[in-house]
Hints:
Helix 1 (53-60) crosses helix 3 (85-94) and helix 3 runs parallel beside helix 4 (111-117). This protein has eight helices and eight strands, in the order E-E-E-H-H-E-H-E-H-E-H-H-E-H-E-H. The chain has an eight-stranded mixed beta sheet with strand order 3-1-2-4-5-6-7-8. By secondary structure, it is α/β, with parallel strands linked by helices.
Amino acid sequence: xxxxxxxxxxxxxxxxxxxxxxxxxxxxxxxxxxxxxxxxxxxxxxxxxxxxxxxxxxxxxxxxxxxxxxxxxxxxxxxxxxxxxxxxxxxxxxxxxxxxxxxxxxxxxxxxxxxxxxxxxxxxxxxxxxxxxxxxxxxxxxxxxxxxxxxxxxxxxxxxxxxxxxxxxxxxxxxxxxxxxxxxxxxxxxxxxxxxxxxxxxxxxxxxxx
Length: 210
């Protein structure tokens, strides 16, 4: 079993988990977000390499002592890492149990893909964009329904305390009131940890808006 990577970034601190982390970014994403900062995940020519779970664990072992000393571990991002759920499950089974595993995801995935990784994830960073179906469709090109279904499923598993929800203010797409509405819907599901930020790259990506 192999998966395509677009980046492996070591020695990250305070960005995507506790302690020192290594980001493993997977190629592939079902969304086409207008201001995407990782658009290389759509281009097969941007694949860094294909790897196996065994080879990836061996590569990341060079940071084992950093992970142990700081309570850090591995952050799985992309792209959309859940497109490679079977690979992730196989990788996590091989990791030392002291490593924390973080997942950065849009939750634009099937229930089966999410269920495959749940036993191994220490914390989730979920970028939902906006929960208004029309805003979500306009910005990402996707359907909000799988995201909502997976958010409800995580809540049913009582995993809200392991989830950070990222709620951006997206120029020309949503407003502060839209973001507040998304937060209120998520709070009603029991989510309490929210990351609010503004996208600052409108001019750079304005040519992508058709």
